[in-house]
Write a structure and sequence with these properties.
There is one protein chain. The chain has 139 residues and is mostly beta strands. The chain has two domains: 59 residues, no CATH class; 80 residues, Clam (outer membrane lipoprotein receptor (LolB), chain A), CATH 2.50.20.10. 9% of the residues lie in helices and 45% in strands. The strands form two sheets. A five-stranded antiparallel β-sheet has the order 1-2-3-4-5, covered by helices on one side. It has a five-stranded antiparallel β-sheet with strand order 6-7-8-9-10, with no helix packed on it. The protein is globular, with a radius of gyration of 15 Å.
Amino acid sequence: MRWEHQPESDELWFYSPIGTTVAHLRQDPSGALLVTSEGKEYRAKGLRQLAFDVLGWDLPIEALPYWVRGLPWPKAEETEVRRDEQGRLEALLQAGWRVAYLAWDGSGVRGLPSKLDVTGERLRMRLAITRWQLLGNTR
């Protein structure tokens, strides 16, 4: 999976284990677009519903911006939280998803995760964050 997140938009590419594109998804204030590997285009109001309708995936698109920063999603109840010796999230069970934090700081930004494993009922995503670009005041 490759994901580019901006305050007003998200763009995701999902790849097979051999590196071929399975789907390309984009969402902005005008709506959501999904393009399959066959080049078929689907549109809807929101990315989460579109991904579920077309691919059968219940993407946690609202929670990902929090989880990738090592934060619980504030709109969901925390059912299980495990932290390491430094107080960073090690594992999180939230909204039917298990988020395992495999590495921190490896992406060049101290205090942010660099590897995550996100597992839901019908989808598993491994995220390796290779670059952070922080906007605004980063103090």
